[in-house]
Design a protein that fits this description.
By secondary structure, the chain is of the alpha+beta class. Helix content is about 50%, strand content about 15%. The strands form three sheets. The protein has a four-stranded mixed beta sheet, with helices on one face. The protein has a four-stranded antiparallel beta sheet with strand order 2-3-7-6, with helices on one face. This is Acyl-CoA dehydrogenase family protein.
Length: about 400
């Protein structure tokens, strides 16, 4: 049993950290303040290979290039390192791969992959995944968006909410879940399918960006579809396979969000350590005060635990373990890591005292960015429900 990263993973982590320190950290506060999405950064991330870690070489990716096969673990490393510096950039990568590339890579046909993946991998484009709706979030099966097939075209009507990377200048498409019928008349259970909608398609409207609490430099919009027509060939995978598809996508996404949370908790730990050694009260550094020292010690424990759970889940994914096993590990990692990250930002703000409430210090931004981690890719309550079900409990 080994708890060490491979030599290749260590080299890769160093490369991403250097990129984050040089290209992201100096600008993160300004991007946050101005609610600026750094579109210029996406091609640079593409050149670094960050969008292609889990994509086959035929589409420009580097999947299979690591001797130990740890492609998904490498993606988590990249998300953690970017998230350590700026959560907005970290979620841009996480969503760009997990929600933009992954549906097409996992379920698309040869033509769909060839049409979209090369540009997405290169960072010339971004894609999004339209699942959440104004009245269908955790209960994704309650999707109201509808798509009707006639004369070789899908006509889509409905709305989506909180969709990441959906309105950038380089967004090429959004994969949308929609009701395309019913599984059976007796059950009334909706048939849900996934359909690719190219940006600029008539009837596809991207609404103004949300005024969010955090993730100010991340792109997030509501989407409206009004008699939006796309070719029948834009169906992703089989008709009625959308529910199964997005469950698989969410499992992977939960591990990625866990990595993002680890990056945030690590950043809080580093900021607290630095400040506690420099800030003095009553003639001593505050780090010499037991209350502060113990709080930071507990934070260090939480970071290690969150990282261990996250990379265990990523390893299970890389090892091709059964989906049920990956799903349980993903839910556990996501639940613990995101709640630990929220606690970490509260601890960091407390250690900084009044300065923690001032935007001049990064812990204020961390505090605002943290809460959404417990919501996106399935709330903490949903994770507990998934874990309980996997334990055999008859939870409703």
């Amino acid at each position: 049993m080994s708890f060490e990263l491979s030599a290749d993973h260590e080299v890769f982590r160093k490369v991403v950290r250097e990129f984050a320190e040089a290209e992201v950290r100096p600008h993160a506060a300004e991007w946050d303040r101005k609610h600026h999405f750094p579109v210029h950064l996406i091609p640079k991330m593409g050149e670094l290979g960050l969008f292609g870690l889990v994509v086959d070489p035929e589409y420009g990716g580097s999947r299979g290039s690591l001797p130990d096969g740890g492609d998904f673990s490498a993606l988590c490393l990249a998300i953690e390192e970017l998230g350590r510096v700026d959560q907005s950039v970290g979620i841009t990568l996480s969503a760009g791969v997990g929600l933009g590339i992954n549906p097409i890579l996992s379920f698309g046909d040869a033509q769909q992959k060839q049409t979209y993946l090369p540009d997405l991998v290169a960072g010339r484009a971004l894609a999004a995944f339209g699942l959440t709706e104004p009245e269908a979030g955790s209960d994704a099966g309650a999707t109201r968006t509808r798509a009707e097939l006639a004369d070789g075209e899908w006509t889509i009507n409905g709305a989506k909410a909180f969709i990441t990377n959906s309105g950038t200048p380089i967004t090429s498409c959004v994969t949308v879940t929609a009701r395309t019928g019913v599984v059976s008349e007796s059950s009334g259970r909706p048939e849900i399918s996934a359909i690719i909608v190219a940006s600029g398609t008539p009837g596809f409207e991207v609404q103004p960006p949300y005024d969010k609490l955090g993730w100010h430099a991340s792109d997030t919009h509501g989407l409206v579809f009004s008699d939006c027509r796309v070719p029948e060939s834009n169906l992703l995978g089989g008709r009625g396979a959308g529910f199964r598809q997005f469950l698989s996508i969410l499992d992977d996404g939960r591990i990625a969000i866990s990595a993002l949370a680890v990056g945030l908790a690590q950043a809080c730990l580093e900021e607290c350590l630095s400040y506690a050694k420099q800030r003095s009260t009553f003639g001593k550094p505050i780090g010499a005060r037991q209350a502060v020292a113990f709080a930071i010690s507990d934070l260090a424990v939480a970071v290690e635990a969150a990282r261990g759970l996250t990379y265990k889940a990523a390893w299970l994914k890389d090892a091709g373990r059964p989906r049920s096993e990956v799903s349980q590990a993903a839910a556990i990692a996501k639940l613990y890591s995101t709640e630990a990250a929220v606690t970490a930002t509260r601890v960091a703000t407390q250690v900084f005292g009044g300065y923690g409430f001032i935007e001049e210090y990064p812990v204020a931004r961390f505090y605002r960015d943290a809460k959404i981690l417990e919501v996106g890719e399935g709330t903490s309550e949903v994770q507990r429900m998934v874990i309980a079900r996997n334990l055999g409990l008859p939870v409703e």
